[in-house]
Amino acid sequence: MPTSARMKMNNRKVLLVGWDAADWKVINPLLDSGRMPALASLVERGVVANLATLDPPLSPMLWTSIATGKTADKHGIISFVEPVPDQGGVRPVNVTSRKTRALWNILHNQGLRSNVVGWWPSHPAEPIRGAMVSNFYQQAGKPLGEPWKMPKGTVHPPALRPDMASLRVHPGELTEAHILPFVPLAALIDQEKEHSLNALAKIIAHASSIHSAATWLMRNTAWDFMAVYYDAIDHFGHGFMKFHPPRQEHIPEDQFELYREVVNGGYIFHDMMLERLLKLAGEDTTVILISDHGFHSDHLRPKHLPKLPAAPAYEHSPYGILCMAGPGIKQDERIFGATLLDITPTILQLFGLSVGADMDGKVLLDAFTEPAPPAFVESWDQAPGDFGEHPPHLAEDTFASAEAMRQLVELGYVEDPGQDKTDAMLKAGLEAKYNLSRVYQSKKDYAAAIAILKEIFEHKKDDIR
Questions:
Q1: What pLDDT band is residue 406 in, cutting at 50, 70 and 90?
Q2: Which has fewest Cβ within 10 Å: 53, 134, 260, 370?
Q3: HEC states along the chain?
Q4: Measuring CA to CA, which residue among 367, 344, 339, 364 is closest to residue 354?
C-alpha cells in the first residue's frame, strides 16, 4: 500500500476539467480559425485523443466511472434518479448511492488536498481534505431578488458556505451583453412567445457559477488535485445543435439565422474559462481536459427524438475528447485506445499511487515521456483508514432535491413523476435496471443482462426497447 510519505516525494498538482458532451468535430474548426486559443495552447504542449464513452451514455453514470475507474455495475450510479424508500417518490441520484471510493477519497487517505466543484453526482458534498461544492450548487430555485438558499450539504467544509453562496450567478442578473455573443440577432426574438433566451441565460449562469466557485478555490485554498465539471456544452447541444451549421432541411431559415452561433459561442465561452483555469493552475500543473461523450453535429443529428426515457442521449456520439499536458507528458502527439475508465488510474499514476486491481481502466502510459510500470493494490475499497467518506447511515433531506429534479424533467431526461409517488418509484427502479442491463451487455455478461430484462418485461411488456 502506498504511503503518504511516498506522496510527499511527489509535489505534482493535477487539474481535471470536465466539459460534458464536448466533441472534436465542433472543436477542430474553431481551433483552425483561432477561436479557441487556450485549448490550442494545451493541445500544442500535450497529447490529444478520442475518449471512448460507455453504454448507456448517461452523464451521472459516466462521470462516476471517470471518478472511480469502474463500470456502473461496480460503482452503483445507474440512473439520473433514484427511489426514495422512506418518503416515496424519486429524487436526483445522490452521491451516497455510490458503492465504491472515488479518486478524491483515495487522495484524502494519502494526505492530499482535493477541490471538487460541480461533479455529477456529488451531493451531499463529501467531507474530504480540501473542499467540495456539489452539483446542487448552481441551481437557482427562486426568482431574482428573493432569498436563494443552498440546500443543506451543498458545500464542504460548511465554513465556506457564505463565500460560495455569494459567488453564484443568477440567470436574472445577465444582461444583453452576456446574451448577444451567442445570439447576435436576439432583438428580433419575441420573448413573450419564445423562451429560448431564458433557457440560454440559465445555461450561461450555471456555468458561470461553477467557474466562480472553482477559480475562487484555486486562488484561496491550497490544493494538490482540482476537479471542475461544466455541463453547459451538453445543454447548448440539446437546446441549439439543431441550428448549428450546416442548416438541415427541416430547420426554418429564420430560426437557423437566429441561433446558428449558439453552439460555437458555447465552446468559445468555455475556452475563455479554460484560459483562466490554466493561468491559475500554472505551467507546473498537469492539466487533463475531458468529455464523457461527444455530440452529433453533422448529418448524424437526429431530426426527432423517440418518446422514451432519457431520449436526449440519442443525440450523443460515442467519443468524447481528451487533452493532457504538463510535466512528463509528451507534446503535440496523439494517443489511441483511451476510455473514460482510464482517467482515475492515470491520475493515480501521476501522483505516484497504486492503481486498484479491481478498477476496469488502465494507465495511459503512451502519454508519458518516461512511462513507468504502474504499481497495483488489490482494492482501495478494502483499505483501512480515513477516506473522507459519508457515514454509512447518513440521513438525507430529499426535499432539497426538488429543484434539481425539475431541471431534469425540463431537459427531457426523466418523466415528470406526478402525484403517484409509488408509481414514480417503480418507473425509476425499472429504468435503472434497464440501464444496468445495458452495462452488462457492454461487458458481454449476457446472462446477467437477460435476467434483468426478463424481470423488467413482466412490468413493461409494451416497451419497444
A1: low
A2: 370
A3: CCCHHHHHCCCCEEEEEEECCCCHHHHHHHHHCCCCHHHHHHHHCEEEEEEECCCCCCHHHHHHHHHHCCCHHHHCCCCCEEECCCCCCEEECCHHHCCCCCHHHHHHHCCCCEEEECCCCCCCCCCCCEEEECCCCCCCCCCCCCCCCCCCCCEECHHHHHHHHHHCCCHHHCCHHHHCCCCCCHHHCCCCCCCHHHHHHHHHHHHHHHHHHHHHHHHHCCCCEEEEEECHHHHHHHHHHHHCCCCCCCCCHHHHHHHCCHHHHHHHHHHHHHHHHHHHHCCCEEEEEECCCEECCCCCCCCCCCCCCCHHHHHEECEEEEEEECCCECCCEECCCEEHHHHHHHHHHHCCCCEECCCCCCCCHHHECCCCCCCEECCHHHCCCCCCCCCCCCCCCHHHHHHHHHHHHHHCCCCCCCCCHHHHHHHHHHHHHHHHHHHHHHCCCHHHHHHHHHHHHCCCCCCCC
A4: 344
As a whole number of angstroms, the longest Cα–Cα distance in the chain is 63
In terms of phi and psi (left: phi > 0; alpha: psi -120 to 50; beta: otherwise), the region of 167 is alpha
Could you read off the pLDDT of 305-361 as tens digits, one per residue? 998 888 999 999 999 999 999 999 999 999 999 999 999 999 999 999 999 999 999
Dihedral sign, CA of 22, 23, 29, 32? positive
Say if residues 230 and 273 touch (Cβ distance below 8 Å). Answer: yes
Cα–Cα nearest to 295, from 1, 27, 6, 55: 27
Q: Grid coordinates 460541480 are at which residue?
A: 118
Which cell numbers in the block locate residue 95? 452521491
220's CB contacts (< 8 A; 6+ apart) are: none
At which residue does the C-alpha cell 411488456 appear?
Answer: 461
CA distances from 456 to 55, 417, 437 (A): 18, 19, 10
